Amino acid sequence: MPTLGWILAFSLVGSVLSLAGGLLLVASATKAGAMAKRLTPFAAGVLLATAFLDLVPESSRELGVAATRWVLGGFLAFYLLERLFRSFHQHGQTRRDDHAPSSALVIV
Fold this sequence. Notes:
Blueprint: H1 3-27, H2 29-63, H3 65-86
Helix pairs in contact: 2-3
């Protein structure tokens, strides 16, 4: 089979499986929520594994130690940003009058 045939065949298989998975999730909202809780961390792990097992070693060969420093610096920066902004994320822990404008800001 020529290369174009393989590309079209695997694209069709991927499309049909994606459609089936989408229909399964639309059919049941509770299943969709439960699957999202389990599959989102899995997808993040796959992306991290791809980066660390494939991309970082290759960039380390090209750039040397600088690539590893950039990767670790990026992780540290995103970790600190997440910790900073997570502290502002509160569900139902604020009082109703906390959102009321102060008298200094009210323009009559």
